């Protein structure tokens, strides 16, 4: 609603089709009239400057200030380390290249103009359709000094699910990275002890992934089985 | 089941194994006295009366000094975050409320604030709903802190604080039952507002509660504030200073007992907290006693906020105003009411959809079964829960169900502070240290 570019208007490239029809059912005679429905995937956002944000003492948007200060601290073009910047729903996100993640995080924590001293942890997200960057590690940072927030996102392809560990910069990430590893299979290189944390040690697979096989429920009625949640008819 | 076999196998790799089942302390002491091992590894939990739920601690002891404390969690992992991906956005509240089960209202609010941010309706939530949310959160803060102090007392071996705390918490739970129909896991806060308005008589009931509660908090303070036994178990125990808190991501009363007045209600207000008059109590002791004092003062501040909420709810500006967003595409269609067969859709609403309007029936059916769509994107919403920053990272792909919801639960983060607060101390202080972190395993494991 806010900040999203209008999807599929003339002149804009069309996003790939996510789904056709409705209810997730195929092969049955569709009498609902929804058979021709085409749902496209949401476009990947990237925000150009100026980024805006709440207006700080400098008279400019906070988000521009953060980007400028990070660029200065990195000593080069911001785009070399940050693949894209997204401003959406009043929140700022840096999509950081994984080779530069440690460097970026260290500047974010230590630079007096940035001072994101408190990390609220790492959250994994699996986007199977985001080819080449299926697994995202999302770090939520908070600066108590400047009272502002920032999200740092670092993606890795499914074939090579390695992301550098940020435990040495934010010790609180220890368990959060273990959880992201446990539930998504993201491997944090350099983590002191990357083991499972929620699932049993000998568990196979990473349950929060979208391709994790879900079981159905057998019922005592003529060999029937309630299908797994992702195979049931639904509105999607 | 042959434990002898297990023991033999473990002894081959890890040394002599003792099995302790309770009331056999003398035998254990006699057996250990004959051993030439210097270190003892104790497996405390996951079923242990003083580990605050199914938390397992592996303690390496040298005498009575803890050399190493390792924490094992996951015994209460129920996959709530995964389950939510197969339910509608509204049904999500019934899941998140079960995470940190002593602070259900906070889970619901954090989740709903995240969903509302994604929907872009944060500014359109009715003011009455916001005031009710604040009221419920502050009541919940009191019940949660009371439970924290109650169990803390019992784990140290004092049963009176436990009885006091449970009695006081019960008063809050009675209020919750009166307002929502449920004592816990209410799913009362919904995206767009709250599920139902306060029933008649609520303001009076909470008014009575406000008369009794200050005395009860004073009683608890009289019992514990200067109690010599209590002081010796809590003062200078489990020291964690500001640097440690920042590094470990520790927030809430633990951070405030290290002297930093960081409270999201003040620093990044939500639900209109900026319009209430209250203080953020801090201590500078960085120890268990400081955390206790902060919790006690926070309850007193909560009472102030509740009083202001009541004034607003009874005032002419908010009386009888809606508690759910006016947008019919998001707001829950039913007007709930209490009938002879329990709580459900109001007779007026049933008459409307069944008798007079086909469109209303379709609308009701669509919104309840299909739910509303949330524009694609991600948002992070945080509230100050009784334990610290409770954050909800909510991701949507544009559908009627959450694509991913992650809860940044303060208990999960705080348990990482166990090695920092326990190692080098006495084994008896481990109990005190863990209890002062106030971890709720439902929130830790989710």
From TrEMBL, chain B:
Q: Which InterPro entries match?
A: NADH_Q_OxRdtase_suD, NADH_UbQ_OxRdtase_49kDa_CS, NDH1_su_D/H, NiFe-Hase_large
Source domain of life: Bacteria
- Sorted UniProt keywords: Cell membrane, Membrane, NAD, Quinone, Translocase, Transport
GO cellular component labels: plasma membrane
- In the record, what terms sit under GO molecular function? NAD binding; NADH dehydrogenase (quinone) (non-electrogenic) activity; quinone binding
Family as reported in the entry's similarity comment: Belongs to the complex I 49 kDa subunit family.
Name of the protein this chain belongs to: NADH-quinone oxidoreductase subunit D
What species is given as this protein's source?
A: Spongiactinospora gelatinilytica
Per UniProt, what is the name of the gene that codes for the protein in this document?
nuoD
């Amino acid at each position: 609603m806010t900040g999203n570019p209008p999807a599929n208007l003339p002149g804009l490239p069309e996003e790939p089709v996510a789904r056709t029809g409705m209810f997730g059912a195929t092969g049955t005679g569709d009498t609902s009239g929804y058979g021709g429905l085409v749902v496209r995937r949401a476009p990947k956002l990237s925000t150009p400057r100026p980024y805006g944000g709440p207006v700080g003492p400098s008279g400019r948007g906070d988000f521009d200030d953060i980007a400028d200060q990070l660029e200065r601290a990195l000593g080069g073009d911001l785009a070399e380390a940050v693949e894209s910047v997204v401003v959406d729903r009043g929140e700022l996100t840096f999509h950081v290249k994984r080779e530069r993640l440690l460097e970026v995080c260290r500047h974010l924590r230590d630079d007096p103009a940035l001072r994101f001293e408190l990390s609220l942890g790492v959250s994994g997200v699996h986007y199977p359709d985001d080819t080449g960057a299926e697994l995202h590690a999302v770090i939520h940072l908070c600066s108590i000094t400047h009272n502002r927030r920032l999200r740092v996102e670092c993606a890795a392809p499914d074939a090579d699910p390695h992301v550098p560990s940020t435990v040495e910069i934010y010790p609180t990430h220890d368990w959060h990275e273990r959880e992201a590893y446990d539930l998504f299979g993201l491997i944090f290189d350099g983590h002191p002890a990357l083991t499972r944390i929620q699932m049993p040690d000998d568990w196979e697979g990473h349950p929060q992934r979208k391709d994790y096989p879900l079981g159905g429920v057998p019922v005592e009625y003529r060999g029937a089985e309630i299908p797994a949640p992702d195979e049931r008819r639904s509105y999607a | 089941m042959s434990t002898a076999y297990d023991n033999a196998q473990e002894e081959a790799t890890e040394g002599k194994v003792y099995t302790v089942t309770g009331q056999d302390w003398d035998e254990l002491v006699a057996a250990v006295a004959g051993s030439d091992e210097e270190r003892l590894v104790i497996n405390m939990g996951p079923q242990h009366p003083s580990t605050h739920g199914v938390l397992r601690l592996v303690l390496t002891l040298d005498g009575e000094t803890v050399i190493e404390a390792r924490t094992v969690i996951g015994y209460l992992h129920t996959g709530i975050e995964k389950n939510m991906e197969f339910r509608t956005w509204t049904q999500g509240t019934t899941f998140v409320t079960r995470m940190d089960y002593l602070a259900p209202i906070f889970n619901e609010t954090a989740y709903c604030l995240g969903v509302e941010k994604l929907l872009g309706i944060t500014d359109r939530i009715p003011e009455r709903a916001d005031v009710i949310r604040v009221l419920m959160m502050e009541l919940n803060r009191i019940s949660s802190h009371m439970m924290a102090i109650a169990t803390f007392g019992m784990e140290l071996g004092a049963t009176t604080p436990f009885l006091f705390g449970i009695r006081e918490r019960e008063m809050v739970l009675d209020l919750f039952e009166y307002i929502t129909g449920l004592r816990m896991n209410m799913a009362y806060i919904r995206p767009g507002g709250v599920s139902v308005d306060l029933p008649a008589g609520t303001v009076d009931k909470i008014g009575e509660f406000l008369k009794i509660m200050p005395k009860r908090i004073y009683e608890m303070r009289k019992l514990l504030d200067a109690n010599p036994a209590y002081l010796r178990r809590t003062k200078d125990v489990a020291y964690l200073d500001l640097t440690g808190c920042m590094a470990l991501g520790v927030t809430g009363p633990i951070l405030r007992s290290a002297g930093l007045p960081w409270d999201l209600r003040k620093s990044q207000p939500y639900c209109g907290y900026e319009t209430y008059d209250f203080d953020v109590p801090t201590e500078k002791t960085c120890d268990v006693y400081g955390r206790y004092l902060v919790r006690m003062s926070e309850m007193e501040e909560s009472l102030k906020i509740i009083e202001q909420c009541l004034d607003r709810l009874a005032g002419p500006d908010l009386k009888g105003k809606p508690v759910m967003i006016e947008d019919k595409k998001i707001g829950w269609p039913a007007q709930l009411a209490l009938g002879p067969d329990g709580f459900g859709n109001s007779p007026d609403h049933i008459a409307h959809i069944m008798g007079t309007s086909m469109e209303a029936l379709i609308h009701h059916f669509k919104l309840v079964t299909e739910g509303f769509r949330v524009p694609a994107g991600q948002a992070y919403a945080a509230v100050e829960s009784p334990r610290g920053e409770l954050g909800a990272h909510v991701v949507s792909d544009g559908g009627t169900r959450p694509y991913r919801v992650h809860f940044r639960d303060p208990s999960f983060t705080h348990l990482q502070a166990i090695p920092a607060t326990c190692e080098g101390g006495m084994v008896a202080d481990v109990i005190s240290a863990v209890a002062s972190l106030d971890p709720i395993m439902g929130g830790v494991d989710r």
